[in-house]
Automatic annotation (TrEMBL):
Residues 216-225 have a biased composition (Polar residues). InterPro entries: ACR1-12, ACR2/9/10_N, ACT-like_dom_sf, ACT_ACR9/10_C, ACT_dom. It comes from Cucurbita moschata. This is ACT domain-containing protein ACR. SUPFAM superfamilies: ACT-like (SSF55021). One of its GO terms (molecular function) is amino acid binding. Binds amino acids. Residues 111-184 form the ACT domain. Residues 211-231 are annotated as: Disordered. Keywords: Repeat.
Amino acid sequence: MGILLDDVVLIRPSEKHDEPSVITVNCPDKTGLGCDLCRVILFFGLNIVRGDVTTDGKWCYIVLWVTGNSSTRWGLLKQRLVEVCPSCYSAATLVYFRPEPQSSKPSDMFLLKFCCHDRRGLLHDVTSVLCELELLIEKVKVSTTPDGKVMDLFFIIDTRELMHTTKRQRDTCDHLKHVLGDAMISCEIEMIGAEVMLCSQASSLPSEIAKEPDLNENSPTTSSGAKDVSVTLDNSLSPSHTLVQIVCQDHKGLIYDIMRTLKDYNIQISYGRFNKKERRSCEIDLFIVQADGKKILDQSKQNVLSTRLRMELIHPLRVTVLSRGPDTELLVANPTELSGKGRPLVFYNITLALKLLDIGIFLAEIRRYLIGDQEWEVYRVMLDEGAGSSVPRNKIKDGVRKMLMGWA
C-alpha cells in the first residue's frame, strides 16, 4: 500500500479565531502512535478539543481538532508529526511505510552554560527561546550569586539533531543574546555524556510529592476533581474489544495523558472518539485490545488500568509549595513515558506562572526520581519573592497548577 508523502499528515488551519484547526493523519499503525502524535501537538502549545481514531491494526486514520496557539508554525508541526509516523522510504512518486526499528541511537545531550545579570522573568524568557528552537530541557540548574548574576546550566536535547554543528550553537546563543540583550555575559554549548541523567532515588523527596494521592472519592484529602472523573471498562458491547468510557474535566494534555498510559501498558486503540463539552467536561470512548489482539477479560488487569487512568486524570501533575526556613520551595512532579520522554513544556509553564505572579527564581533544578516503580521528573524551584512582596503559598500553588492544567 502506498500513499503520497504530503498526504500522510494534512493540516487545515482555522479561518476564524473561534474555530479549531483540523489535523488529519493517514499512515500505518503502531502501538503508541496516538501518544507520540499528541506529545508533538502538546509541545507546540495546542489543545485537542475533539478527535476520531480508526484503525484495523495495520493502517490508521486519525482526525484531531485543535485550538490554542495563533502563532503555530503549521509547516514545522506537519514535519514533526510525519517524523513520528512509522518510517518510510520512497519508490517512484509514492512513499511506502515500514515499521520503525526496535532500537534507535539515543539522542546526544548538550550542556548550555550561560551567565547573565538577573532580572524578573529572566528564566521564563530563556525557556521560551529554547522551546522556540525545539530544544528539549532534560535537566536544569539555576543559581543566583550575591552580586546579582545568574549562572544557568541547561542539559538539552536538540530535536533537530544539529547542535553538534557550530552554526546551530551560534544561532542558539544569538537568539538568547537577542532576548537578553546586554544582560547576557557569556554563552557556551558543549556535548556531554548521557550518564548525567541517571535516575536518583526518591528517598530525599518530600512526602507531599512522593506519596501516592488518595483516589477515594469520599476521602477528605481527595481533590474535588476526583468526583468529576469516571472510568468504566465494559466487555459486553463488543465481541472483540474492551470499551473504555471516560468522563472527566479537560486539562492541558488530557488526551496525551490517556494515550501515554495506554502506550505504557502496550494497549492498542482500534476505534476512539473524544469530545470536549461545555464547562471543560470531556467524554472519551475507546475500543481497545491488548498486545495479543484480545480484549481485557482479567478483572485484576481491568482494575490496574482503571486505577492508573484515574490517577492520570485526577493528578497528571503534582504541585506543592513548602517552607524551607526563611525560603519557599516549589515542587512540581510528572511521570515520564516508559521510553524516557518527559512531559513537554512543564518548565515553560512553571516559569510563566511565576513571572505572572512577579516571583523571582533563586535556584532551580530538574531531576528524575523513582517514585514507586515509575520514573518521574521533579522540578525543584527555590523562590526569590523579594523584600516585602511575599505571595501566599496557596496562591503560588494554585497559580502554577492552573497554568500547568491550562485553566489560567
